[in-house]
Amino acid sequence: MSRIDSLLSAVLPDVAAPDVTSLPSATRSEAPSRTTAAPANSVEVFRGAGAPAASPARAAQVAPRTREGNGFDFGVGGAFPPKPTGSLQEQVKQGARLMEQTQAAAFSVTFEQGPAMDAYARKQLGHLDPSPPIAGAPTALTDYTSTIPGVSAKAAFEAFVSNPELLFGAAGISLRPAASALTDGARLFLEEQGPPPVWAPITVKLNETERVVHITTLDGHPLRGTNQFVFDDDGSGGTRIRQYSAFQGSSPATSVGLVLMDPIERQHDIWRSVHGQLHEMLKPR
What is the value of pTM for the model shown? Predict the structure, then answer.
């Protein structure tokens, strides 16, 4: 592991708290201020493929994928490990939501109520507010990249938006409610069987013109954060995918989770799996 100048850090998701009803479409020019925990123009780069996540039986079943050829890599910067952020009142609120959604996730993975559980998820999601990183507070940053040779950025963006269950299923994650495609303004729980079972709520913003998918966490997510996916032509008929992740702890449960398990490495493996599955779906045969 070494610290190098980052070529990825010029574009990062906006970490100012947005209004979900008026959040402007994400663009490539968004660039929040970095924290002083690491030099603003450097990241620590990690290379090599980790072990694939085990896919629970109820997650989407997919064909085995290869990781060769997509050049997946990532670098980290900012404030690691992420610390619980916000006022005591805010952290208590987030912790209470997290516990409530953990109980729902346990019920879902145990009994799998299908349409009834999806209806419950929709109702719960309607009560949740966005919980992006708090501006000015220490923020963990990760830049992920991968490539898909021979596939246009437009085709890659459309495939990502049109196949969320397949892509997240590659990481062992189910969607509640079920979603055959991502739509602008969609609200979803990312469900992991665990242990512990998790319902991680998110909202999605799409910018088809710029080929950007912007994901913001909602109340009760284990992390406060944003993920921004940018699909660019690589100049040779292929696609370069750049994913910019910014996150903080949402409640004291974040610190407990860091002691009991490795949620950060799990996060890396989720995105490794999603990038790898998209490449496997689209790569020229």
Answer: 0.76
